[in-house]
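User: Let's play a game. I give you a shape written as tokens, and you guess the letters that built it. Ready? Here's round one.
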């Protein structure tokens, strides 16, 4: 996630900031950047674990038979969606409040848009896994009667 000043070639992201010709890491511990980084990393972990569990569900991996993997994958994707949404909200709120008042011509860049797209994609991934869970549950519950 980054913003870029329109007339300058300066830009800043979560991990570093760049001026014409040079980039520097963020050495100061800035609370909103630390919170955004932590939430994005936790979201990435939840999404990765959700992908692994989802793959295990569709290849009928025999471990954890009592554990419904499609439901767990759906919940993990919803958790990932929530964490990305919180990270994007914190970053947007602080950045708009700070830079919107101080600089007139700045804009968010491509990685910011990817962050919001990931909110939508993880949300729909969670929905699709829960639909797969419901489709898998319906025949099982109708056969038990």
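Assistant: Ready! My guess for every position:
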């Amino acid at each position: 996630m980054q913003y870029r000043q329109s007339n300058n070639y300066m830009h800043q992201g979560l991990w570093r900031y760049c001026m014409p010709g040079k980039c520097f890491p963020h050495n100061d511990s800035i609370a909103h950047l630390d919170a955004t980084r932590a939430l994005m990393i936790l979201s990435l972990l939840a999404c990765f674990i959700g992908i692994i569990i989802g793959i295990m569900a569709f290849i009928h991996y025999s471990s954890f038979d009592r554990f419904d993997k499609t439901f767990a994958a759906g919940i993990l994707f919803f958790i990932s969606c929530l964490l990305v949404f919180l990270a994007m909200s914190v970053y947007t709120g602080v950045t708009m409040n700070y830079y919107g008042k101080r600089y007139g011509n700045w804009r968010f860049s491509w990685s910011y848009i990817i962050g919001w797209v990931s909110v939508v994609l993880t949300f729909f991934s969670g929905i699709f896994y829960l639909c797969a869970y419901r489709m898998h549950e319906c025949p099982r519950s109708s056969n038990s009667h």
